[in-house]
From TrEMBL:
SUPFAM superfamilies: PLP-dependent transferases. Pathway: Cofactor biosynthesis; NAD(+) biosynthesis; quinolinate from L-kynurenine: step 2/3; Amino-acid degradation; L-kynurenine degradation; L-alanine and anthranilate from L-kynurenine: step 1/1. The keyword Lyase does not apply. This is Kynureninase. It catalyses: L-kynurenine + H2O = anthranilate + L-alanine + H(+); 3-hydroxy-L-kynurenine + H2O = 3-hydroxyanthranilate + L-alanine + H(+). Catalyzes the cleavage of L-kynurenine (L-Kyn) and L-3-hydroxykynurenine (L-3OHKyn) into anthranilic acid (AA) and 3-hydroxyanthranilic acid (3-OHAA), respectively. It is an enzyme of class 3 (hydrolase). The modification N6-(pyridoxal phosphate)lysine is found at residue 243. It comes from Paenibacillus glycanilyticus. Keywords: Hydrolase, Pyridine nucleotide biosynthesis, Pyridoxal phosphate.
Length: 433
């Protein structure tokens, strides 16, 4: 609902953006983060910013190491032996799971390998894995290598559902590909380029109706969108914590295993998958945990998990519902400004516009996208990212981005285009795009 004040203001003006910021009940969280005052950060969908609380929790854990040495495993504020489980309990509400269905461990790609070695059980003519052609490359490489380990030719056994337009996937096309040759389905929750949010509930129900297990890569949705993994009966999921959850570069990832699968032998076993009370018996017989913790392998990367303690506190306080509400509102605001300010400049909006199909970022397509990104970064001090072949991703993150940031971003993008500043750069991606 627009207030009296908003109605009087030009909705494309800077004052209007300021008004939106004044009315933003999450605005205070920006002060929790380290924000470079000389730049506008629009890349929290790739690497989230450092919060002061995440920094503090990392310092706390370092302090425990400094003062306790080996006893940090069982003593101190956050005993390391239980840290993965403690963080799982804190993350579970973000994915609609019970604490024992989540564990903070490994990396996204390693967790995918773990889950596929566990849940891909080809039998008879059911030997194929179903994915999609827009999936993040690391997932595809993992699936291809898993098929090879089973002696299958990935060209034949990895089905990649085609996109009709190179941007989006149609749920109907995915469902049509769920044949009786498919043993396992792995799909993204939100597509990393277009930001399309797939209907996970529907896809899970359809997969199960055909006797197929299904798992989701939640890298681009966890911390941005509410999930109901357990209610939807998703079999498994995996995600990184360094994007919307602000756990830091390469920070430890997470996985979800539906309770009905607890007790399934992990494909890749290791001693940290043991029952906590049995682990230090040091027996050669594996007594696996009766939780998702069973899918851990070796010693947790404590220092790469510690920032998540502080970071998840912020999510508990702000609440995901409010964060999603702001995310939808601020991305819509950005789309409206783009439409108003940047028409006839060769841009195409490449993300879904409907709220129920949109993730946390805006995806702008342009034939000069690579060099527009360079000009934005170097000359306009806006941090977007580029994804080949022609995408500029812009993520106003509800915890720390302002409506003013969005307004400035679109204005500076306009200057970049009107003054042809991008022509000073080669239209090629950087090494790390
Ligand atoms: C959707 C998706 N899947 C997988 C990965 C790979 O994650 P990692 O390199 O942490 O294993 C990423 C990001 O890098 C991603 O965005
Ligand atoms: N994992 C990354 C990295 O090691 C370097 C730079 C970027 C990343 C990313 O996470 C990219 C991200 N997954 C993407 O959506 O493209």
């Amino acid at each position: 609902m627009m207030t009296q004040d908003q109605q009087e203001l030009d909705p494309y003006s800077k004052q209007y953006a300021r008004k939106l910021d004044e009315q933003d009940e999450l605005a205070g969280y920006r002060d929790e983060f380290y924000i470079n005052p000389n730049a506008i950060y629009m890349d929290g969908n790739s690497l989230g910013l450092l919060s002061k609380r995440a920094e503090q929790s990392l310092l706390d854990v370092l302090g425990a190491w400094r003062t306790l040495g080996i006893d940090g495993w069982m003593q101190g504020q956050h005993p390391w032996y239980y840290l993965a489980e403690k963080l799982a309990a804190m993350s579970a509400p973000l994915v609609g799971a019970s604490a024992d269905e989540v564990i903070v461990t490994g990396s996204t790609t390693v967790n995918l390998h773990q889950l596929v070695t566990t849940f891909y059980k080809p039998q008879g003519t059911r030997t194929k894995i179903l994915a999609d052609e827009l999936n993040f490359p690391s997932d595809i490489y993992a699936l291809q290598s898993q098929l090879k380990l089973h002696g299958y030719d990935p060209d034949e056994h990895l089905i990649r559902v085609a996109s009709r337009d190179g941007r989006f996937l149609q749920e109907e096309d995915i469902i049509a590909a769920m044949t009786d040759e498919v043993a396992l389905i792995v799909l993204p929750s939100v597509l990393y380029r277009s930001g399309q949010l797939l209907d996970m509930k529907r896809l899970t129900a359809e997969a199960h109706a055909r006797g197929i297990l299904i798992g989701f890569d939640g890298c681009h949705s966890v911390g941005s969108i509410p999930h109901s993994f357990s209610e939807w009966d998703v079999d498994f999921a995996f995600w990184c914590n360094y994007k919307y959850l602000n756990n830091g570069p390469g920070g430890t990832a997470s996985l979800y295993v539906n309770r009905k699968h607890h007790g399934t032998t992990p494909g890749l076993a290791g001693w940290f998958g043991s029952r906590k009370d049995k682990q230090f018996d040091m027996e050669h017989q594996f007594h696996q945990a009766d939780t998702a913790g069973a899918f851990q392998i070796g010693t947790p990367n404590i220092l790469s998990m510690a920032p998540l303690i502080g970071s998840l506190e912020l999510f508990a306080e702000a609440t995901l519902e409010k964060l999603r509400q702001k995310s939808l509102h601020i991305t819509r605001y950005m789309m409206e400004l783009i439409e108003h300010e940047l028409s006839d400049m060769g841009f195409t909006l490449g993300n879904p516009t409907e709220d129920e199909r949109r993730g946390g970022h805006v995806s702008l397509e342009h034939q000069d996208a690579a060099r527009i990104c360079k000009a934005l970064k170097e000359l306009q001090h806006i941090v977007p990212d580029f994804r080949a072949p022609n995408i500029i991703r812009l993520a106003p993150v509800p915890l720390y981005s302002t409506y003013g940031d969005v307004w400035e971003t679109v204005q500076r993008l306009k200057i970049t285009m009107v003054d042809k500043q991008y022509e000073k750069f080669a239209n090629m991606r950087d090494v790390v795009a």
